[in-house]
Each structure stands twice: as C-alpha cells, then as structure tokens.
Amino acid sequence: MIKLVIVGFGNVGQGLVELLLEKKNVIGKIIGPVKVIAIADSKSSISGNFSLKEALEIKKRRGRLPENRLAREVVEEEDYDVLVETSITKIDDGGEGLKYVRTALKRGSHVVTSNKGPLVVAFRELMKLAEKNNVKLMYEATVGGAMPVIKLAKKYLAFCDILSIKGILNGTCNYILSRMEEERMPYGQVLKEAQELGIAEADPSYDVEGIDAAAKLVILANTIYNLNAKLSDVERVGITKVSPEAFDVAIEKNYTIRLIAEASRETLKVTPRLVPLNHPLAIRGTLNAAMFRTDTAGDIVVMGRGAGKMETATAVLSDILDIYDSSS
Amino acid sequence: MIKLVIVGFGNVGQGLVELLLEKKNVIGKIIGPVKVIAIADSKSSISGNFSLKEALEIKKRRGRLPENRLAREVVEEEDYDVLVETSITKIDDGGEGLKYVRTALKRGSHVVTSNKGPLVVAFRELMKLAEKNNVKLMYEATVGGAMPVIKLAKKYLAFCDILSIKGILNGTCNYILSRMEEERMPYGQVLKEAQELGIAEADPSYDVEGIDAAAKLVILANTIYNLNAKLSDVERVGITKVSPEAFDVAIEKNYTIRLIAEASRETLKVTPRLVPLNHPLAIRGTLNAAMFRTDTAGDIVVMGRGAGKMETATAVLSDILDIYDSSS
C-alpha cells in the first residue's frame, strides 16, 4: 500500500484526486494499491478515514477542507511514502512549497511536485537531499504540462549528449504571438483578448515578461547539464515590445516570431526570435513544444498542452508510477 | 557484466557497436559494464576474444566477419543475456530474424530488435514467449527510428486511454509528398529525384505502397490495444496515385496531403489524407511524427528522424538500458 499526502488542493491537486479515482484499476495493476492518507491546503486539511470523493465534494462546496490542521503540520506529522506537492509557485523564495519538499525529503519520503518554485530556488540542494535520503524527487509536471520533457531528457536520452534544447514553454505568450501573427493586431489588444478568454492573467507579467518560461528553462537546464542555475542566470526578454510590423517583416520572409527558451552549455535565454514558418517550433495557440538537439538521435521534438488541470495531473501521476514501477 | 550477442551487422548493428564504443563510460555508469561476446550476420561471425573496433574494421574491409559460424548457430550456442536482433526485415514470414528471436526468448535471454518482421508476423506469440520466460522483448527501433513512440505509449502514457494514434511513419513517402507539395511535380518525377538522393529504393514499392508504414502501425496498435493484428488487417492505400492537381485543390483550402497511419480501437489504416497546413503532422522532408490522442493528457506529439544508422542504433541502445536500469 503506497501512502500519499497531497499538499495544495487547487486545480492540480484536485485533478490528481480525480485521476486516482478514475484510474484506480489500471494504477493498481501497475504499482499496486495507492491510498491518500491526507490532503492539505494552506488553511485546512482532511485526514484519517475519508473518501477521495468526499474530499473533492467538501472542497468544492465549502472552498476548504474540514480540519484546521495546516499543510505544514500535515507534512511533518503524517506517515507517508510520497508527498505530492502542488502548492502555488513562489518564484522568488520557493515559498511554503520549498519547506514542504525539504521536510518530506529529510524524513525519507519521495516527493512529486508540480511546483516550479522549490526547484528554481534550490535545485541542487534538493537533489542532494533526495540522494542523501535515498528517495526520489520528481518534477515532470513543472515543465510543459503533459509533455514528457523531463523523462525524455533524463531517461530516453540518458546516454545522449543533448547539445541544446529549444522550447516554447509558455502557452500564454504563444497564444498572444500566434494571434498577432494571424490578425496583425497590436500586442495590447491581443493581450486583452487573451485575458477575456482566461488565457492570460489580470496581471500578465509573470507570463509575458518570460519569467514562467525562464523558470521552466532553469529546471530543464539544471536537469540536463547538471547545473545549479537560478532565474537570474537567464537572459530574458518578454514579448511586450513585439509589434505587428515585426510580423509583417517576418512573414514576408516566411518566418514568424515566437518566444523561444533555449539552453545549451553556453546559453540560457528566453527571447522573442524569428522561427521559420515550417519549423516544428512555429506552433500556434497555447501549445508547448520542446526540441532536443542530440549527438546520436538527431533532433527530437515533443509537443503538447503545456498546462491544464488534467494534463498537469497526468504528469504528476506518471511520476508516481515511475517511482514504483520497476518495469517502467 | 551484461553479455550481448548482435545478429545482423549492417547499418544498425554497426551503429550500435560504434555507440557502445563511443558511449562506454556513460553506459557503464547507468547499467554497468556491457560486453559483446559475438557478432553474426547471415554468412559469418566473430566471437571469443575480439575488440569491437577490430570487428568494425574487418567488416568494412572484407564485407564479412572472420568466422564461418552462422547467426543461427551463434544464437543457439553462445551464452548471452541480451540478443540484439538487427537483421533485414522480412515482412511476409519474419524470416531468419523470427527464428533468432524465438530461440533467444526460449533460452531465457532478453531480446532487443530493430526488425519489424518478427513483430508483424508473430506479435502475440513472441510477447507471450517473453512473459513465460520472464524476459523482455524490446522494439523501440522498429517504429520511428529515434522517436520514443513505444516507450511513450507503454510507459509514460501507461495509465492513459490512448483514443487514437496518427502518424507519419515513412520518411520516403513524406519526402515525396512534401516535394510534390512544394514543386507541384508529378509523382514519378519526384520519385526519381528521391531515388537519386538515396531516399527511395530502386524498387520503391515497400515504401510507396504504404507497406512499411502499415508494418509499423501494426506494431504500434498491437502494443497500445493489446491486439494481435497482422499486415493484412490494415486498410492500405499508397501514394502512387496522388497527383499534383490534388495538391492544388488542397493547398487552396490550406491543407496538404500526407500518408497518415492511424490506429484506434475501430481503425487500422494507412492512406493519403488531407492535413491542415498548420497541423503538427504537416511535416516536411524525411521526418517522422506521431500524435497520441489521450483521455487525460490531450494530444501529445513526438517528431524526429524516422530512420538512419545512428538514430536507429540510439533506439536500440535505449532499450538495452531500459532492461537493466531499474531507476529508468
């Protein structure tokens, strides 16, 4: 019986619980029975004898869980095999999430996280802590939603030299740029449209300034090149100054403009760049994509939904399975 | 010490040997030392105390290996952990390759193959044989070269419902169709160009009639849907009748034409189809791509070189690592 604690009960946490319910049989076949022994958010929790359905219903109805015990206490007090950490990203200091991850690793529990904060702030520290305690720290969900970029880099391409990785790692920026390409509208107008559609936040700066893409790039680069890079190591230019006229010039030469995150041994940058119209990274809408340039496998591209409740929860679940499925 | 026998010493076999030499250190770190105890092709072999470099040089110089022992005997007589089977695909009856795979599985050795023949002819029989003998039969290299399609389906998406898979699984057809799209030349003329470039064979029927794509589709579908489909179960139309005029009509509506292999619970077909110009499968040149439509992860696309000596050898090596790397 694998015992999970889930911290953070927003979209991703709830999505995971829905997946655990829906996929119970197939999960059982692959890694055996899984039991969620506690769920906590910043203000409330549920533990002991509860059903997952009940937890979802209470959270949806009341906006909180029935017990007053905080996530911090749950992480310290419960006896679990895996901490699933889905709390909100705090890019500056890792926030509470970083504390939860540290606590879990120190007590010898595996951690699966969808939270970029802890990894951007303390990548090497956390990896060493996991190694020292002989547990795994998994984070497929932090980069590219359901796209298997971390597993591709760490496992399938384990023996390859990854010369560079270029990616479209932020769906909001890609939506805005592809709409600008199609309609030749100014940035501000397309941003407003994206906000109305719920694709961009009221304060869009985290996305449009390239911070989100840079955070994902830091995680990818640290993984691939064994670095301890931080957000401040990324050369970063957002998309707010891209003009419709720039698209006129680009399209005339069969190019478009996309926010490209690139990592190599020499480079760590997120900038708007010209991309040939028929290039695999010239994708449209909110899709994400990543292109690995390798020494022996040529270029390998993956593409998929970079965000979304069930997509991100799928990545979290794939990590849980990966910890326990020796045949995987 | 993991002991390999390599059967088939053409492009893929030689590529693997080059990789084993070049990547010795990193392979050692991941799965420990690997030793090739014999290499055989249909007419000759090398075994005992030999160096991999020596084997490559002799084969290149003489076109054969020094000993007269045949592959069949080597597979029966040597004491190996993994048979790497890279002999030429015989799509009708599996050829000698099928016999080698059967022999190795029966004696309790793992098999890694780049040969579609055995899997198209006897998928379920071989899978059961592997299971019964508690060994693995791995075949990433049979579909899409270096693209990790089999691992994506079997592992990362293990708990997902794959509603359908659509792919461009033959680089020759894709090259011909994308050249027809660009130049609006007739099929025969583009085929000739492809033959001159070495992209199409002198007898191109295996590719242009969709047989190669159908063979890969059978392997994918059997893997994903747990079938025992054969080549004859695939509805198949080649590309020889696609006209430049068809491209005129398609392009006018922002579509192109590609040879799409599609599998779902209801469908198994390889046919030229209209694809929107901005669709992830509207790729050009000899690239391959596969799009998995899933229940919880949305659409996931992978793209890469579908053939090539080192690309295919990379897939073979990834399988060998996968057998032994419990952390992978």
Automatic annotation (TrEMBL), chains A, B:
GO molecular function ontology, one term from the record: NADP binding
Key words, A-Z: Amino-acid biosynthesis, Methionine biosynthesis, NADP, Oxidoreductase, Threonine biosynthesis
Pathway involvement of the protein, from the record: Amino-acid biosynthesis; L-threonine biosynthesis; L-threonine from L-aspartate: step 3/5; Amino-acid biosynthesis; L-methionine biosynthesis via de novo pathway; L-homoserine from L-aspartate: step 3/3
Record: residues binding NADPH: 116
GO BP: any one term: threonine biosynthetic process
EC number of the protein: 1.1.1.3
Active site: residue positions: 216
Binding site residues for NADP(+): 8-13
Highest rank taxon of the organism: Archaea
Sequence ranges assigned to domain Aspartate/homoserine dehydrogenase NAD-binding in this UniProt record: 8-140
Protein name: Homoserine dehydrogenase
Organism name: Thermoproteota archaeon
Family: Belongs to the homoserine dehydrogenase family.
Upper lineage: Archaea, Thermoproteota
Pfam families in UniProt: Homoserine_dh, NAD_binding_3
Transmembrane segments: none
Entries under SUPFAM superfamilies matching the protein: Glyceraldehyde-3-phosphate dehydrogenase-like, C-terminal domain (SSF55347), NAD(P)-binding Rossmann-fold domains (SSF51735)
Homoserine dehydrogenase catalytic domain segment(s): 148-321
Keyword Amino-acid biosynthesis applies: yes
